[in-house]
Amino acid sequence: MAASLQLLQFKPLKPSFSFFSRRSVSPICSAAPTPSKSQRSYTITLLPGDGIGPEVISVAKDVLLLAGHLEGIKYEFRERLIGGAALDATGVPLPDETLSAAKQSDAVLLGAVGGYKWDNNDKHLKPETALLGLRQELKVFANLRPASVFPQLVDASTLKRAVAEGVDLMVVRELTGGIYFGKPRGFDTNEDGEEFGFNTEIYAEHEIDRIAHAAFKIARKRRGKLCSVDKANVLEASILWRRRVSAIAQEYPDVELSHMYVDNAAMQLIRNPKQFDTIVTNNIFGDILSDEASMITGSIGMLPSASLGASGPGLFEPIHGSAPDIAGQDKANPFATVLSAAMLLRYGLDEEKAAQRIENAVLDTLNKGFRTGDIYSTGTKLVGCKQLGEEIMKSVESNVPSGATV
Ligand code: NAD
């Protein structure tokens, strides 16, 4: 099982495209594997989930296997049910068996959960409940969401080329606190007999401190700029957030800290996204802003994420959902899940070479013009999820150097 609290490493690569560039080697916050480096054998829990989840996980598993094999890594894969698939089979969205397999592995790779079929279920029986439960049980408090515009896909962005080109930002979202978990919460009836719903935005110092430390360390390895996003003009929890982030900044004099209100941040992401390097924010603002940032890149199907805690396995997943509208039609873009597998190798297992091999293969496949429908443009080659997977595998095998790909 994954253990110690040190290695979220950013190693120097030699890319000409900065999506994958990390500037030096240094611990961030978590996710080092227990197996010694010489052992190089890992247990990975695969959670395909619902909709397009199984399609994209199947591609990512093959890519992981091949890249691992070529770099001398062995895996034991454990596939378990989650979300709607688990509900149908066991009556709960996150079976104990799934949770225990996840906790006992070195890393967890998740597809997506949810679908029309379960939309009207009670909250505790919704597939999405499994995600919140899994994140909470794995104690993964830092969610890393890179949003970088691939040079090959810059025209897929809805923003003007001049605005989108060169965007390379990382949203560090607090994942286990705030309004999504705060109590009290619920429904009640007021004195007029009207029903109301309520939630609580709540952050304790230690929750802010640990995500701030993680974000400063990430910013330090990127371009040294950290923007903390809050709503400190209105919310007490945000006032504390700003106070703690400012205090912790004293320990990182090499990082330039700025603060921004969330409404302004939402505007600035569209107006001038290149101004951002690393953004740190709370759970709900991070949820919204990282989805907004993802649209700058042109497709939700390109974006991976990593969720890391102080110890134990990290959770790696594409940011997109289960896309029920295209499920089972071989139309899903598997790149986001394949890139999540690369993040798993880098941040979860400290297997930098295999991670690079996969990332280079993604760039190479894009360079060769292969596209799924969501990123297709005239002059490129439209392929399905399976064929795109095969093309990625060919590039993994030929191990193109990163410098040669873009
Ligand atoms: P979605 O991300 O599933 O889909 C939004 C749009 O993007 C759809 O048109 C879809 O076809 C497209 N899309 C998404 N991923 C794609 C891919 N890899 N390749 C090509 N096209 C892709 O979001 P949604 O429609 O709001 O949600 C659908 C279901 O997924 C809901 O049940 C929702 O709760 C769930 N969901 C799950 C997660 C998760 O598992 N992490 C995240 C978001 C939504």
Automatic annotation (TrEMBL):
Domain Isopropylmalate dehydrogenase-like positions: 43-392
Reactions the enzyme catalyzes: (2R,3S)-3-isopropylmalate + NAD(+) = 4-methyl-2-oxopentanoate + CO2 + NADH
Known cofactor(s): Mn(2+); Mg(2+)
One GO BP annotation of this record: L-leucine biosynthetic process
Domain of life: Eukaryota
Keywords attached to this entry: Amino-acid biosynthesis, Branched-chain amino acid biosynthesis, Leucine biosynthesis, Magnesium, Manganese, Metal-binding, NAD, Oxidoreductase
PANTHER family the record matches: 3-ISOPROPYLMALATE DEHYDROGENASE
Record-given protein name: 3-isopropylmalate dehydrogenase
The organism's taxonomic lineage, starting at the top: Eukaryota, Viridiplantae, Streptophyta, Embryophyta, Tracheophyta
